[in-house]
Design goal:
By secondary structure, the chain is an alpha/beta fold. The protein contains 24 helices and 13 strands. The strands form two sheets. It has a ten-stranded mixed sheet, with helices on both faces. A three-stranded mixed sheet has the order 11-12-13, covered by helices on one side. Strand 4, helix 4 and strand 5 form a beta-alpha-beta unit. Helix 14 packs antiparallel against helix 15 and helix 17 crosses helix 21. It starts with a strand and ends in a 6-residue tail after the last helix.
Length: 639
């Protein structure tokens, strides 16, 4: 591997070259120098050609100063008190006059895959130089070190200060400093700032720092001297230590953002602008495969999906956060919608059930939960979860009460339709979540929300659970509960996907709330996968139902079932035939009747089936009682 160092006419200075030489020799890596020079035509030495700076005498405005500074750096190393016998690094030179400097640097770093890419930064840089550094820090795949060299001469080996907490890359900075100290004997001070919250604050900070050093494998390094400072101001605590004669400070990058954030995210700007002889380095660890895939995916979304502007995002946050609260309005709408849905289900009226779906407010907190997952907003997750859970309990109670007060003793077709969810229901709910979030985020599409509410039913399954429980049909209640759980999980995942694709992102931090949201998201994914098993089995059974039986056998069974129903005055609503396994078939019959079928009806039908097709038969009857007026007209009893 190699160490790639980038110079241009603004950064080709003595101190910058010295640190490049020190890093390459201390890390025992080949030094590849990429120079970005002014001019129209591109010129470069052959790639990987060894550059002999000791014998290079030239009036070249780039190679002349570079050779001189490298010779001085080598002399400084040899005259230092470094005891380790480290070989002189091989040095290669690449020269380029590319107009897009950042693109050239990224291209070379991708081709070479260096262990470390070093950029140099000066406070007097213009905006173009700052943007170039920002782009490389964001996009380079390897480790990147952004150095602001001091104006004073550095000593070999330098005294190194490493703040051991703060940015997410602090541990990586400690590991790099550990290599320097072991190979060169550089005195290194890992620093931890502990807030002055108690008289034992110093001891607490020492234990935390010791644990961090063990993670970085620095606990057995004789050149490392840990230091803990008790201060309520991190910047002041670090500033108090920098005056103790350090040459180099290595900081873990504070996260993604512009150059100012990288440089000043953990230290004050005044400290970096002081002529203290302190060189400051900001280290960003190389990107993992997961991070690379995520970045490519986000760039793809930027190109393919219209991104929400600031005003649209504010509008989405306001509407979903306020609508996800458990309030009197929410409770009143939920009671009314559940009552309407329950009556519609008992009357087997599709139109009434659809009307209840439009009144139900449960969709909003589910979209709020999707927004919270996209943002990493743990308080909003808790608020939405409370609204959904309380709404579920309230709707269940309303459905159970109405089911108890009603005179119906059997499940209607509308109720039965919500007791056997399949994999298709999971897909419908996920697509509904996508569509609902997309409509909420774009006010001109709000009229489509009514259709989404109808597509993904939330209140009817809860009402079915309550009614089925009041009738003692626990199997049907479990099926309705499975449908509701499927809808909840899939809608949240769909909403999170839609809002994330539309440009809603959370801050890239690792605090406890964000971690909990990630765990919840993972739990929802696992829940969706777990639900896929029972839903898929039902779906496969339904797909394989009629077509798995010979046509002649289906015709014989149809005639037999029609004759059986006619004798008992049943009005057939639907019939389903399937083969459970070889030698056994299943009949699922939905019908209207003026009387409750006798408990022997399914057994009688199974016997008729066995006589007809000479095979075992499993029967499931789904009766729906007609109105009392019809019962008076047809007083015949079912046998």
């Amino acid at each position: 591997m190699s160490l790639l160092v980038v110079f241009d006419h603004q950064t080709l200075q003595k101190e910058a070259v010295r640190y490049a030489y020190f890093f390459a020799r201390a890390l025992e890596q080949e030094l590849v120098i990429l120079t970005l020079e002014p001019g129209k035509e591109q010129k470069k030495l052959e790639e990987n050609e060894t550059y002999d700076f000791r014998s290079y005498n030239s009036d070249d405005p780039v190679l002349g100063p570079l050779s001189k500074h490298l010779q001085e750096s080598e002399q400084l190393w040899e005259s230092s008190n470094i005891q380790q016998q480290l070989a002189q690094p091989d040095i290669s030179l690449l020269r380029s006059t590319a107009k897009k400097k950042s693109s050239k640097i990224l291209q070379v770093s991708k081709e070479l895959s260096p262990r470390l890419l070093i950029l140099f930064y000066h406070l007097e840089h213009d905006e173009q130089q700052k943007k170039m550094a920002e782009r490389i820090m964001e996009r380079a795949l390897c480790d990147v070190l952004l150095l602001r060299p001091a104006s004073e001469s550095c000593s070999f080996p330098p005294r190194i200060l490493v703040p051991a907490a703060g940015g997410p890359h602090a541990l990586h900075a400690l590991k790099l400093a550990d290599v320097f100290s072991k190979n060169t004997g550089a005195k290194t001070t890992p620093l931890f700032i502990e807030s002055d919250h108690d008289e034992v604050a110093l001891e607490v900070g020492q234990k935390i720092l010791a644990k961090t050093l063990r993670k970085a494998s620095m606990h057995d390094n004789e050149h490392v001297t840990p230091q803990v400072v008790v201060s309520n101001d991190v910047k002041e605590g670090i500033h108090s230590v920098t005056t103790q004669g350090y040459d180099l400070m290595l900081l873990g990058a504070s996260g993604t953002g512009n150059v100012q954030k990288y440089l000043f995210g953990s230290l004050s700007a005044s400290l970096l602008r002081q002529e203290t002889g302190l060189t400051v380095g900001i280290l960003r660890a190389g990107k993992t495969l997961r991070e690379r895939i995520a970045e490519r995916f986000e760039r793809l979304l930027l190109v393919t999906v219209p991104q929400l502007n600031r005003e649209d995002r504010i509008s989405v946050f306001e509407s979903l956060e306020s609508g996800s609260r458990w309030s009197f309005d929410f409770m009143a709408l939920l009671i009314l919608s559940t009552a309407i849905a329950s009556l519609g289900l008992l009357q087997s009226s599709t139109a009434v059930v659809i009307g209840a779906m439009l009144v139900a407010p449960l969709m909003v907190p589910l979209l709020g939960a999707g927004l919270a997952i996209a943002q990493g907003n743990f308080p909003l997750v808790k608020r939405a979860a409370k609204a959904v859970f309380m709404g579920f309990l309230l709707s269940f109670v309303v459905g159970a009460v109405i089911g108890t007060l009603s005179s119906v003793s059997a499940l209607t077709p509308e109720l039965l339709a919500r007791t056997q969810p399949t994999l298709m229901d999971l897909a419908i709910a996920y697509l509904s979540g996508l569509a609902a979030a997309y409509c909420v985020a774009r006010p001109n599409l709000s009229a489509a929300l009514a259709g989404v509410a109808i597509a993904a039913a939330l209140v009817p399954p809860i009402a079915t659970m309550g009614i089925a429980t009041s009738l003692g049909n626990l199997n049907a209640a479990q099926g309705a509960a499975l449908l509701f759980g499927t809808n909840v999980i899939a809608i949240i995942l769909g909403a999170a996907t839609s809002l994330y694709a539309g440009g809603i992102r959370g801050k890239k931090s690792e605090h406890g709330g964000v971690l909990w949201v990630r765990r919840i998201f993972l739990g929802l994914l696992l829940g969706a996968l777990a639900l896929s098993l029972p839903l898929g089995s039902v779906f496969v059974a339904q797909v394989a139902s009629t077509h798995s039986l010979p046509q002649k056998q289906i015709e014989s069974m149809t005639r037999m079932v029609d004759s059986f129903a006619k004798k008992r005055k049943w009005k057939i609503l639907s019939r389903e035939f399937s083969q459970i396994h070889k030698g056994t078939v299943s009949i699922r019959l939905s019908f209207e009747s003026s009387r409750t079928p006798s408990r022997f009806a399914s057994q009688d039908l199974a016997k008729e089936c066995k006589k007809t097709i000479k095979a075992g038969c499993s029967v499931e009857l789904r009766p729906s009682l007609v109105l009392a007026a019809k019962a008076m007209e047809d007083p015949a009893l079912d046998l």
